[in-house]
Amino acid sequence: MIRFEFFRVFEGKELSIPLSFFTGLSLIVFCCPSLAKSDDGINTEVLTLSSSSRPSLLSTQNSWEVLAGVQETYYEISSQKDSLAAFFLKAKGTSKVSQHLRLDADISGVFEQKGTDQGLKNPSTRRNSGFYLNQVRWNYEVTEWLSLDAGVLNQRRFMSPLLAYNSSYPALRQNIEFKNNSWTWAFVSQQALPTSQKLSLKTAQKEEPPMYLAAAVSVQKTWPFGTQTRFIPGMYQFNNLPSAVAYESCLRGNSSIGECLPNSRFAYHFLGTDTYADITLNLPHEWVITLGGNYMQNFDAPKGQSQGILYELNFFKGLNTDLAMGWGFQYFEKQSDVTPAFYAPFMYENNRKGYGGNFLFTFSRRQMQLKGTFLQTTPLKSTEAHRSTINYVQLSLETRYAQSDD
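Above: the chain sequence. Below: its structure as tokens.
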């Protein structure tokens, strides 16, 4: 399974579209495996550099896999430099409990991290030593075309690079999917409690629990010669965001009412549109090329503060039966008030633009993977909290062991 991904970011507040809108859209709503079978490790057919080099194990009754590796992270903020090293483990599994019920689990552990105190507290390394739930999902298949999810759910299913893409929240999700020859239509809606990496709501006394609502439609078409296209328009909304989230988001680019203080409130609510599209070309001689883009707009923020865009171009090449390589490029711009920055990855903070690249080598027989990422970001508008250029480099080497029961 080849996975290579960048990170994502945004900031936000609260608004008042009724929950019934999203719940209703849930019942005509979506979540096709084609929309993101990659999020569960269920089939990395993700039409990007995340494409898989071999079939997923998780199509069987029961399966599990363990990934282990080492990772080195280097970053530079103004004249301050730091690096961190870590050993990590990742265990994933699925079990078919009954004819209609399945349990998927994905848990990570990070150990023996080294670096300066400043580095360990930096937002880019939020996952300090400990264990993390990437996903624990109960999936109930109501009919052939309708399924329901509950648990701690990974957000990759919505294919939104700039909005909580790597996060996992306690959530309920409704999925509908129809297939007709080369076409796949899917509808998904979700009601979630947005949390930190440690699953904390960050609420203080008398603050209501925050809410994150999302809904999307996915249309996928397979064309002759293996070309695939996807179009995924959606909507998002954040409600009741705590003052602690507003404060930390303000430090990462969001606008606040008054100064950035521990009791800050967001200057704008968060209700907007989130659209992703890509095209994948499967070419002769084992070449795969993917061009994708993400566009977001917060309806409540003023012009110049409400939009986010990301473009990415990825290449993948099979060199022989054992070795394959991939590389890619990306560019993003994220204005100050598209979404709440607290929930987004560090390298996609609000009020920033940046470019970067990545590479990937996979060794099938040895079940090993070497990958690297580079990203440089600069402020869109200079503020007291956002003046510096940030350089970020990450290298990792991992190996995989897997087993399945047919």
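Helices lie at 19-27, 33-36, 117-121, 243-251.
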